[in-house]
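Worked example

This section walks through a single chain of length 327. The input is the sequence exactly as stored; nothing has been trimmed or padded.
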Amino acid sequence: MRVLAIDIGGTKSSVGLCELAGGIVTKVTGRTKFPSRNYESMLDIVRDWQKIHPESKFSAVGAGVAGPVQNNKVNLTNLGWDIDGAAISGVLGLPVRICNDMEAHGWGILGLTPEHVSVLNVGLSGDGAKALIAAGTGLGESVIGWNGIRHCPMAGEGGHSSFSPTNELEDRLLIFLRGQISGHVSWERVLGGYDGFRNLNKFLAHDSGHSLPNFILKLPSDQLDWGAATVNAATGGDPFAEQVLTLYARLYGKEASNLALKCVPRGGVYLGGGVAPKILPWLTKFFMDGFKDKGRFSNLLSNLPVNVITDELNGLKGAARQAVAPE
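Given that input, the structure is written out below as tokens.
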């Protein structure tokens, strides 16, 4: 079976033709990336993909989207699109199933192989729920439930839950963010790939009484990629950039453990999204420090497997799998 799979993010959308056998993706072809903000709808992206790959045929469409899906409909949080799977199905003349992007990544996790993960903590693996936290443009969180027979990927918007400081430095970070943001300060403001690196750079400069570092100030005004600039500077040994990534990695661990305590994922904790593979050296050094920082429950958390997903097609494969999964 061939499914046109779509992974829609706030920055880019990835589209590819997935071949499935027995519910497992065996091949992905025609993968094409589209800048999401250049489009007004998912259907427009599908049409453009068909123009690029006119010979490619498919019998269903599966999409993972960054927003809460209900009745195969969604308004995308970061793009403002309204997507109606039934309406698109009527236009294309074939089944279209929409799911939350974290649910899609959950389906992808169920098909992961060892070469597509990097281990942060071996832990004690076993049957049970799995937890997913994924920093990309924003921050996604979800649980892949376990009913004793099979796993059940679920949607989630946990990245929008309230940021919770645990020490004086983080207290000051929350106070700083309250001065920058009108209203709710979420974990996405701290760990989202765009907001997180921007806010942590600004906070640490403010907290130390210094101006922003040169690796940020020299960025062209139309290319303010705070995350890439910070990683590049830290790779070159810049001490301020290293401080930012150290704090980021520890905070990533702390919020991942918040999620883990809510579902006790004996099947493992997974870090998805585009940020984690790019900052592996800092996650390897500092993530577990934050993850285990839970007092009486540090031993429980120390025994959970923790993995970084390195397969950039995970969300795409998951979107295809959910399109053909039994409802």
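What to look for: The chain has two domains: 2-107+313-324, 114-310.
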